[in-house]
Amino acid sequence: MVHNRGVRSVGESWVERDAAVVWHGFTQMAAYADNAPLVIERAEGRELIDADGRRYLDAISSLWVNTLGHGVPELNAALVAQAGKVAHSTMLGNGNTVVVELAEALAAVVPVDEPHFLFAADGAVAVEQALKIAFQYWVNRGVAGRGSFLALGDAYHGDTIGSLSLGDGGVFSAVFEPLCFPVVRTPGYADPGWAAKACAVIDAHAGTLAAVVLEPLVQGAAGMLCASADDVRKVGEACREAGVLLICDEVATGFGRTGTLFASEQCGLRPDLLCLGKGITGGYLAMSATVASGEVFSAFLGPDLGPQTFFHGHSYGGNALAAAVALEHLRLIGEWEVLASVRERAAQFATLLEERVAGRAGVRAVRQRGLMIGVELEPPGPGLRWGRRVCAGAVERGVLLRPLGDVVVIMPPLTITGGEVVRVIDALDTALGDVVGR
Questions:
Q1: pTM here?
Q2: Following CA atoms 335, 337, 338, 339 in sequence, which dihedral angle do they give, to the nearest 10 degrees?
Q3: Which of 48, 224, 268, 285 is the most exposed, fewest CB within 10 Å of its CB?
Q4: Structural domains in the chain?
C-alpha cells in the first residue's frame, strides 16, 4: 500500500512532518524527534528563526558555511541579477562569463601559483577531485609507482569514498572501511611531534607518494585540533624537497575563518592543490573548487580527448548562480574589512574564554584559531553526553551550538558583533554550569 505523506495531517507538527519524509545526514532518525531539533523557517542577520518564531544566534554558521550573516542584501541582489541572466549552463566543454569572472577574482587571492579552478558542489568532492588529479598527474608525467597518499591522524576530509579513505576512521566510517583504499598515516595535531614524524615519513616514502593531504592550522572535525604555522610550514617544505605534491584542504579554514583569507598564508604554503568549499558563497549556495597550480594543470594538456585529459566533471559544477554570489561575497570580504573584524572578535573570544571557561571544572582544554573554537569537556565517565547536553542548554538560551562528541564547537559568522560574542559566552557559561557545575 502506498501512503501519501505529502499532505499534512491536522495537528501534525513540523518535526513530525520532517521525520516522516526527510533523512538527515549524521543523524539517527529513530531518535531525531526526541532530540528537540530546530525547524528553521527564515533568518535575519546572524539569527535563525524557527517555525514557531523563536530566534537563535547562529554560532555554528549553519555548519561552518555562513560568513557574512543571513539575508545579506548585496548577496541577495547578486543572486537575483544572475537569475535574470542564466541560472546554470554546463561547464563541460563550454564556459560561462560569471564563472570566468569568479575564477579571475579567486586567482588574484589564492596561495597557488598560476591557479586553475575545477568547480564542484561540496568540499568532499573538492578533495575527491584533488586525489584524482594528484594520482593522474604522475601517470601523465610517466612516473610509475606514485599512487599512495599520506594523511594525518584524526583527519577528516569528507564522506565520499576517496575523502573517507583519507580520514582516520572512527564510528562514522567503520562500516565503509572495506570500500576505502589504504593511506600512509602519521600522527595528527594532537601529537606534539607530528610535524617531525610526517617529514621523516615523507622523506622515506618519497618515491611512492602521490601527495600529502592536510588541513592547515586546524583539524576541524577532529575537535578543533590546532597546529603551529611553523610546523605546518615544515611539512610543506618537506614535500617540496621530496618532490611530493601538497594538497591543502581549506574547505573549513578558508575564506577568513582563521584571520587570514586562507590558513595556508599564515603557514607560508603554496600548495600544488587547494580545496575550497563551505564559505565560498557565504553560505548561500552549494559550491566548491579544487585549485590546481600551473605545473599540475600543464600535465593534463595534450591531444583532444587524449589520455592526458582529466575525464571528470559534474552536472552542476560551476553553477552560475553560485558563482555570482561567490564573486560578490569575495568583494564584500574586502570592502567590509572582514578579516580585521575576525581578528578583533577572535581576540575578544580568547579573553572571555580565558576568563570564564578555561580552567573551570569539567573543561579539559580550549582550542582556538581565529573564529574556529573548540571547548573540550572532560566528563567523569562514559555515556554522559556532556557535549550534546551543553549545546542543548545553549540552544535553550537562544544560541545555536553543535558538539563534536564532547567538544563544543563555536564557529560564528565572521561579521559577529562584540555584543553577540558576549551572548555566546553567556549562554555557554550558563549551560556549562547547569551540566558540569560551578
A1: 0.96
A2: 130
A3: 268
A4: 38-68+337-435 (3.90.1150.10), 74-335 (3.40.640.10)
